Amino acid sequence: MVGLALGAALVACGTGTDEPEAVDVGSQAPSDAASTPAASSEPASTLPDCAAVWQEGSTLPVSYRGCSQDGVDVKADKRDCSFGRPLVIFDDGFYALAGARVNVTQGPVADDPDYRSALASCTA
After folding, report:
1. Which one-letter DSSP state was computed for residue 46?
2. Rounded to an integer, what distance in angstroms lies between the CA atom of residue 54 and that of residue 84?
3. Which of 16, 53, 66, 98 is the most exposed place for a label (fewest CB within 10 A)?
4. Residue 54 in contact with residue 91, Cβ under 8 Å?
5. Per-residue pLDDT of the chain (124 residues; tens, 9 = 90+)
């Protein structure tokens, strides 16, 4: 019983200093805030989703800079045209003039006769 009373007295007294007691942080479970990267609270990309932009018949925005596909930014693949608007290719299966209709090819863009015609007109 004396041991129990002595243990209670030591707990009540603390260390006898104004300094906080050391804590073994290795034994503490990480908090959700500490284990979550800060970047996850911000949007992954400011670019539009590629699937939403590159749809046959939709209009490619004049200000198109690129899009986001599976969380990765895809920079616009542009060919400068002599009349000031670029011809843009996406995923080797889509092309469009900025501000114009999106076109889909049946194979690689370079093999598509309509794309080759558009490119020839663009660079003339």
Report:
1. S
2. 21
3. 16
4. yes
5. 444 443 444 344 444 445 444 444 444 444 444 444 444 455 568 999 999 999 999 999 999 999 999 999 999 999 999 999 999 999 999 999 999 999 999 889 999 999 999 999 998 8
Residues 60 and 118: their CA atoms lie apart, in Å, by 15
A 10 A CB-CB count for 71 gives 7
Model pTM? Answer: 0.64
Q: Are 66 and 50 in contact (CB under 8 A)?
A: no
**Rounded CA separation 79/122 (Å):** 8
* 86 neighbors 62 (Cβ within 8 angstroms): no
